[in-house]
């Protein structure tokens, strides 16, 4: 199903119609919207709730959550265990127009390592800027008060405290952290698909003026994407590897003297195995 809307239409006017159309097309009574925190505005989240639908969202953490502060306070000399999950219920009040919610906070050592490395780099740049060694550019750790420059150590401390933590908010209170976090992590595959369509499939933006042309373009792109993911699933190859390998082999047919001559480059064993997996019994429909 492909939906296209005018560029000047707000997301709140496009999201629910698309969701309802998807539910009608597949005869679904309920769906769960999974999205990153930056993709769903407060208005969209409210609209999802009012429509009676479920959601799993990346949670924004402008301050250190209570459950994280409590754990750190209770374990002052301990490293946070890799994979630790803390649960923070958020029941609806008597006058709230929403369902009960729960937020899961997960810590991973790899995420902490990457985040802390980024913080170190930003703080080092901020210190050089404050010392007058480099121009002041956009840096969240630099505080400007008139002509005075300073390092925002409070913000740095908060950022280091939250390094490695990721929040997941949902109104599926009985689903459990494993299901919620697993569903959110499937977004990585969706993001990978969009990168694939942009780079590997060269599906670049094209300016169309007629709706039929716009929908045709989107349909072709998503059909190519579906075929590409199928090729990856059955061969175990990336679509880039498959295309780059297969495109070097050609079959040529020559009509000469009433005869049809066929010349073909010999296909290596690994490529032939991949082709057999695509066209085998499971792919012959």
How many β-strand stretches? 9
Task: Provide the low-confidence segments as ranges.
Answer: none
Described by the principal axes of the CA atoms, the overall outline is extended
User: Distance N terminus to C terminus?
Assistant: 21 Å
Mind describing the biggest β-sheet?
5 strands, mixed
- What's the overall average pLDDT, rounded? 87
Helix proportion:
40-55%
What percentage of amino acids are in beta strands? 15-25%
Strand line-up across the major sheet: 1-2-7-4-3
Question: In the residues, how many domains can be counted?
Answer: 2
Derived from helix and strand composition plus strand pairing, the structural class reads: alpha+beta
Number of helices: 10
Taken in chain order, the helices and strands follow as HEHEHEEHEEHEHHHHEEH
Cα radius of gyration in angstroms: 26 Å
């Amino acid at each position: 199903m492909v939906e296209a809307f005018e560029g000047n239409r707000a997301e709140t006017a496009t999201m629910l119609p698309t969701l309802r159309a998807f539910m009608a097309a597949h005869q679904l009574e309920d769906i769960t919207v999974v999205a990153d925190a930056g993709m769903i505005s407060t208005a969209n989240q409210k609209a999802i709730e009012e429509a009676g639908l479920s959601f799993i969202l990346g949670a924004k953490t402008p301050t250190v959550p209570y459950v994280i502060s409590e754990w750190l306070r209770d374990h002052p000399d301990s490293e946070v265990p890799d994979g630790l999950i803390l649960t923070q219920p958020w029941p609806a009040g008597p006058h709230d127009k929403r369902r009960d919610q729960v937020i899961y906070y997960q810590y991973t050592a790899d995420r902490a390592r990457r985040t802390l490395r980024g913080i170190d780099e930003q703080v080092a740049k901020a210190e050089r800027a404050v010392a007058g060694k480099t121009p002041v550019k956009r840096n969240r750790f630099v505080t400007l008060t008139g002509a005075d420059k300073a390092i925002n150590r409070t913000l740095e401390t908060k950022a280091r405290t939250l390094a490695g933590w990721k929040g997941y908010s949902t109104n599926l209170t009985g689903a459990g952290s494993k299901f919620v976090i697993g569903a959110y992590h499937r977004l990585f595959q969706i993001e990978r698909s969009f990168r694939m369509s942009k780079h590997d499939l060269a599906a670049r933006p094209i300016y169309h003026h007629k709706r039929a042309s716009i929908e045709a373009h989107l349909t072709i792109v998503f059909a190519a994407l579906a075929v590409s993911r199928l090729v990856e699933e059955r061969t175990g190859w990336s679509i880039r590897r498959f295309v780059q390998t297969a495109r070097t082999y050609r079959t040529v047919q020559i009509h000469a003297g009433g005869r049809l001559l066929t010349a073909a480059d010999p296909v290596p064993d690994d490529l032939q195995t991949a082709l057999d997996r695509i066209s085998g019994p499971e792919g012959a429909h």
